[in-house]
Amino acid sequence: MPVTYAARHVLEDHISGFEATPNPHHLAILRAVSVFSVLAHQGHEADIDEALTTLEDVHVRVCGPGEWLVVSEIVAADTIARQLADLGANRASFVDQTDGRVVLQIHGPKVRAILGKCTALDLHADLFEIGQSTNCQICHVAANLARTGQDSFEIIVMRSFAGFLFDELREMGREFALTAGFA
To answer: Which residues form the GCVT N-terminal domain (predicted)?
Structure first.
């Protein structure tokens, strides 16, 4: 007997019944995002970095020396896989992390105060510039944090820790009336 599975987001149960009209401080869960992990082979770090910046409709998030996350809400995973394969197997390796990662966006005038409660990074606008990203601990969970706008950040976390991180961020944002919902 065939079984049909319904695709559900890992945070579906965390948000169900609690979605609200976004306040100035809002935590958005992205549903359909392609995420790839890319690792440059030794000696090819600079040219892979340059090649990744030429990809259209994707955001490149730095994870460490010669390691990036390639993220897109527009480009399908199979298209990104073809583009990354064109970089050459002798220059870089990549893995589709789309089903293994969750992408959250948080914004608001006091977003740095909210994130400051759960990460040790200095998020001052002069130090953590728009477009900058890094791997870090957020609420004791390994994540990638990127500044995407004046008062907005993107958090990429492994799927198995997404529920915990989501609940903790909601708690940290309570004093600022942080709302949450699917984007």
So the answer is: 54-179
